[in-house]
Amino acid sequence: MESRFTVKSGKGNFQLVRQKFLNESVSIRLPEFLKDLSEDERKNRRLSLPDSDVLKMNKEHKVMFALSVNDFSLRQDEHLDEEERVAVMLEAQRRVVSRIAPGYQEYGVHCKKIDGRTVGYLKYKSNSIEDDIYNIFYLFFGGDKMITGVFSGLMADMEEWNHIFLVCLDTLKLNLDKT
Questions:
Q1: What is the tens place of the pLDDT at every residue in 51-107?
Q2: Which neighbouring-strand residues pair with 110?
Q3: Domain interval for residue 140
Q4: Antiparallel, parallel or unpaired: β 132-142 and 117-127
Q5: What does pTM read for this prediction?
Q6: Number of structural domains the chain divides into
Q7: Which pLDDT score, from 0 to 100, does residue 48 have?
Q8: CA angle 86, 92, 96 (to 5 degrees)
Q9: Which helix (H) or strand (E) segment is 132 a member of?
Q10: Which residues make Cβ contacts (< 8 Å) with residue 93, sequence separation at least 6?
């Protein structure tokens, strides 16, 4: 399988490279310019993403990708199918983010099938000290695991990052028996 893929945007072409995470249970194509943060950089980012198993940013810290895996059970709602579980958790995340994210503005809540799993995602704007931020929060389930993550970029580049992030999301490959 080819590991590189080119996505075209208004600002040029971006190389996406397949990367594997979480004991190779999740893979996704990401812009090649995203790099792992050092331990010091991760410590400085802990307040906003405390439990991220994967945290990558560009060198200017303007574009970010994060991924986390958590044990999860909806004990009282075990009768829900995968799509309903995703919808319930996505709505809960939407409520939390709308309350805690300064300048929150929602651009949509969506669910779609990717690699045989229902993946839900929330697109929204938030603020930082310097800039408005465009975010796509996503989540999906694998057995008793819930995988969550976020793509973030500058709001001024929303159209470009929306396109690139959604292309990346569509490249998810899951082997959740390894988590």
A1: 678 889 988 888 999 998 887 765 556 678 889 989 999 999 999 999 988 889 999
A2: 121
A3: 4-178
A4: antiparallel
A5: 0.87
A6: 1
A7: 53
A8: 140
A9: strand 132-142
A10: 122, 137, 139, 148
